[in-house]
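Collaboration report, partner site 2.

Our partner group contributed sequences for two proteins of shared interest, and the home lab folded both. The records are reproduced in the order in which they were received, starting with the first partner submission.
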Amino acid sequence: MQIVEPRFNKFLCAISVLMHEMKSKARVLGFCLLILILSCSPLFSQRIAQQGAWVIGGEGFESGTSMQQTHDGGYVMTGHTDSFGAGNSDVYVVKLTGSGHLQWTKTIGGRNHESGNSVCQTRGGGYVITGYTTSFGAGNADIYLVKLGSSGDLEWSRTIGGAGQDIGSSIHQTTDGGFIIGGMSASYSTGNPDAYVVKLDSSGDLEWSKTIGGAADDWCSSIRQTHDGGYVFTGATSSFGAGKSDVYVVKLDASGNLQWEKAIGGTDSDLGKSICQTLDGGYIITGNTKSFGAGYADVYVIRLNASGELLWTKTIGSKDWDSGNSIVQTRDGGFLIGGQTFSFGAGSYDFYVVRLNPAGDLEWTKTIGGSASDSGNSICQTSDGGYAVGGSTKSFGEGYADFFLVKLDADANSCEATNSGGITGSGGTISNTNSVVTSNRGSVSSGGSIGKGGTLNVLCQKR
């Protein structure tokens, strides 16, 4: 039997402890390497900032008109720029991550004027933008439709219109993979400009188009596909209603045939800016009213049932100008409005964010902005339960005006937001209208060169 001396026993014990420590350190090192690899992956890096404020632009003028949260938790914005691009102004498209990092920017246009008025991410991960162009097309201004890939590369563009002025204000992808555009047309109207609705297939080829209106000015500001496969839009009408202009709400079937239409307002000017279908099949609209409210103009909110009958109206604001520019229904059944206020805030105009409960009662308001003019034009509830509002700022940034994106957490806190106010009221009569609906084809062409440009300024950020 072999006897092991005590000193050799101590040596073996020391070796065992050392090997155990090395294994522990290896496990720690491996864990650190795993964290490093994950932090560089797209999934891990797409952490959403709970609060933040970001400014994007150049030394000239950038106006942000539309914003959407993307499938990856980031954000896409469109509008126009005269700091970059091929002409006087170009469509400007900006993509940010959820944590506020600038991924890419694109300019699209020709030697004259182009603007993006609405952006929508497609189910394939790309983007489609509508607005107008004076560089291409058949007339004074044509609807401009631009399709980008997921990295912002130009796939195709279309112009739609006639000899007059035609503008796209709102776009969404339809359930068949095509696109619906709402706007206005002076080329095919029965009187002055009419509301213009255009349906295209997934390749951007025209399927049908309709003009809807009367003898005076009528237009579409916002359009959505409805649960039944049809479409609903809001805007304004001077052809029908009780006052100078009324909120215009029109329901079409899947082929663009008129189902019903309403004019809502008072004796002064009332405008519809944004519409969405509610969880119960009805509709919620926001815009502004000079007929009712506490001041020169107030945020106007209108709730209709599925048949277009008026359920309630609300006005929110104070003594000066206040407007609702975008509305969504939140996951709890309430409503979130993004807009602009001159009654409250730090400057001439500020972002105005308004939260209503499902009955339309005011829960809270926020203002965001600086000493100059800032306008919130688009709003959404984010995947983390917070809120994002996009628009334009003259208070911050490098140039005369820049894109402005602000993220609020689920409790409506943001590093750039302050508590605000708002006097609530109601008002509005509803009128049936008698619009003329005309089918027309319009001429379709394409054009546009692509470029890039813009810097990101982080005003504040909190994860």
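Second partner submission, folded after the first:
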Amino acid sequence: MVPFLHVQALGRLCRPEILLSPGRGAALHTTATLEKNRAGRYRVTRNHSRPLTYEMANPPHQIAHRKAWNSWNTTHFASTKTKKCPTNAAMKVAMNKKKTVTDLMQLRQ
């Protein structure tokens, strides 16, 4: 026996003999509601007068990954290529001589 489906909103389409008949398997289509409300999410104002901060714009589990990638991907900027920044070869020499990076920085000045 088919259980009775009690839905009055759709009227006669929701009768069990129409819904569960073998020839009409796709008679009733349902979709998710199209709501844009998302709880707990920061949003930019409509006229973009108050932009989001970095922490507000990124989910917590992605901040570490993106900050790491952004710090690794800044080697081509001119401001990171200063004379005070030790090179890889100088770092290897310092590690071989058991010197710290601060000692190396003092030697370069």
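Feedback sent to the partner group on the second submission included the following. The two ends are 90 Å apart (CA to CA). DSSP finds five helices and no strands in the chain.
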